[in-house]
Predict the structure.
Amino acid sequence: MATKTNPFSFLQQVRAEVAKVSWPTRRETMISTIMVFVMVAFAAAFFFVADQLIGFLVGYVMSAGR
C-alpha cells in the first residue's frame, strides 16, 4: 500500500528532481526546432508526391478499361 506524502515534501522532491534535469541551451532549442520544421517539410513533400503518383496510377488503371 502506498504511503501518503504531504504536499510540502512532494514539492521539495519535485524541485530536487527538476534541478537534476539537463536543460538545453537556447541555441540547441533553436537548432532542434529548425530541424523539426525541415523534416516536416520533407515528409509533407514526400507524401504529396506519393499521393499524386498513386492517384495518377489509380486513374490510369481505372480508365484502361474504356
